[in-house]
Amino acid sequence: MTTEELLRAIGDIDDDLVSEAEVWNESSPEIFRKRRKKKVWKGCLIGLAAMLAVVVFLPNLSMSVAYAWEKLPVLSSIVKVVVWRDYYRQEGRYEADVQAPQLTLEEGEETDEKTREQLQQSVETINASVEELTDRIIAEFESGLENDKNLEGADSISVGHEILTDDEHYFSMKVWVSEAMGSGWEQDYFYTIDRRTGNILKLADLFEDDTYVGTISEEIKRQMRQEMEEDENATYWLDDPETEYWNFEQIAADQSFYISSAGELIICFNEGDVAPMYMGCVSFDMPPEVWKDNG
Questions:
Q1: Torsion angle, CA of 288/293/294/295, rounded to 10 degrees?
Q2: pLDDT tens by residue, 120-132
Q3: Model confidence at 108, in pLDDT bands (50, 70, 90)?
Q4: What's the pLDDT score for residue 66?
Q5: Residues 82-103: pLDDT tens digits?
């Protein structure tokens, strides 16, 4: 069937319904039932025709449409997250709630073998890192509990995770650890996979040379100064002769970061890294002139 024949068929259905409407009246329930039945069939046929037009005919209408059709993204191997360890213990004022994530891969026909092998290796590396982290936290918690036979102290610790980005380019996950012992604190751990290569990304991997260290550091300082000018409650260790030892100079070689779902580079610091503990974990969004994904 050609496109013209398809449209003519739809037109014929409309003509039949119009003719039927001319002889229909409310006192004829039989005709009313037939009209309703035909109306339903008409909707189904139009829907089917429209679907056929999109699937069969549209890609053949022009070279540009056909090219765009071929370029529609197909899901590759998907990094999935499951809870690998669910540890809970509560005694006296001691409480631990640890829900550790584990990554797995779903099948994806569009991922080449080399990339999939690298993805698998990256997943295993991240899983080992999270396992080591949670093993240490649980061991420290149980050791503290064991040393406090009379349960005179208190400790409350929790571990969880958050998927920050999961698209065709990047997978970013944050594993957070928080502890409440009087004031409390939080530590965040970030993991980012480039799904196009399967590699776990380090910040240096996003740049051609090490000039990014100075560029990002100066941008962070600019944002710190601006925030302190606009908010009297904001405090960073910067340009302060009284805390010279703590003053932020530049990002670390293993600096924490992630790439947001909007494709933005976010630089992250844990509590106490660049500011007093009351500021919590802080982060800085890098503008496009500092970094923009061109992949």
A1: -170
A2: 999 999 999 999 9
A3: low
A4: 34
A5: 877 889 999 999 999 999 999 9
